[in-house]
Design goal:
The protein is α/β, with parallel strands linked by helices and 274 residues long. The chain is built from 11 helices and 10 strands. The protein has a 5-stranded parallel sheet with strand order 3-2-4-1-5, with helices on both faces. A 5-stranded mixed sheet has the order 6-7-10-8-9. Helix 6 runs parallel beside helix 10. It starts with a strand and ends with a helix.
Length: 274
């Protein structure tokens, strides 16, 4: 019976891989990689000649039996394109299947973009909520952020350069002007950390061509923030959203998440304005 090793790989700087990780990658009989071409470059750099097989979102189901069969013969390593496997990749399915088949699953810790960004953000690290990539559509993104808007935990999101401005606009609309740390290209040549308010981050990234992968660390709701909005405040927000041409349903979802009002009550107020 083999062991499934979850091995963290560098998110940029190749010096961040551990000696233990390299040793195990050389000793296992098989490495399951999210992208064999991408990982092949890393492994070649360090002289790792272990057999590679692909394991990614679109082949994860039919590859499970093959990898479990390999585990029956010996140890297998799972790696992702960068960072810790099973975080925002299909590694979870393999871990679940390996455990169900009574194989040992062992982590080989190392780089992780969400944790790296959190530790240098300057925001509270004692309790946090990691939510991965935000939804692509604006309405779904605002809804997802709205669901956690009243939580006191530091929030961590991932985002692509193509949507960073839109996401910052939605964070500002849904959460208000909280503190944020925007981490870009961590451990790489053009590494950057922007700290300040969400509105400041929005202005900054609007003024340049965003590049690289982003990790957003956002302040949780503080005790000093008000609870339920006054009706006059809610009505002002409704009128502004109606002027933007949004539907009553979309407005009710967005504003209910922010205002502390029941969605049905917000919807009734919208209809009273129309």
């Amino acid at each position: 019976m083999g062991t499934l090793f979850l091995i963290a790989t560098p998110i940029g700087n190749l010096e961040d891989i551990s000696p233990r990780a390299l040793r195990i990658l050389k000793e296992v009989q098989l490495i399951a990689a999210e992208d064999t071409r991408h990982s092949g470059v890393l492994l070649k750099h360090f002289g790792v000649e272990t057999k590679l097989t692909s394991y990614f979102e679109h082949n994860k189901i039919h590859k499970l039996d093959q990898i479990l069969a390999a585990l029956a013969e010996g140890d297998v390593a799972l790696i992702s394109d960068a960072g810790t496997p099973a975080i925002n990749d299909p590694g979870y399915e393999l871990v679940k299947a390996a455990l169900a088949s009574n194989f040992d699953v062992v982590p080989v810790p190392g780089p992780s973009a969400p944790i790296a960004a959190l530790t240098v953000s300057g925001l509270p690290t004692d309790s946090f909520l990691y939510l991965g990539y935000l939804p692509h559509k604006g309405s779904e993104r605002r809804k997802a952020v709205g669901q956690v808007s009243n939580l006191p935990y530091t929030l961590i999101f991932l985002e692509s350069p193509h949507r960073i401005v839109d996401s910052l606009e939605d964070l500002l609309f849904t959460l208000g002007d909280r503190r944020i740390c925007v981490a870009r290209e961590m451990t790489k040549l053009y590494e950057e950390y922007w700290r300040g308010s969400i509105s400041g981050a929005l202005e900054y990234f609007k003024s340049k061509d965003p590049r690289g992968e982003f990790t957003l660390v956002v302040e949780g709701k503080g005790k000093e923030e008000n609870g339920k909005w006054e009706e006059s405040e809610l009505m002002d927000a409704i009128r502004k959203e109606l002027q933007k041409g949004k539907s009553a349903k979309e407005i009710s979802v967005d504003l209910a998440a922010q205002s502390g009002w029941n969605k049905k009550d917000v919807y009734a107020l919208i209809n009273s304005v129309k």
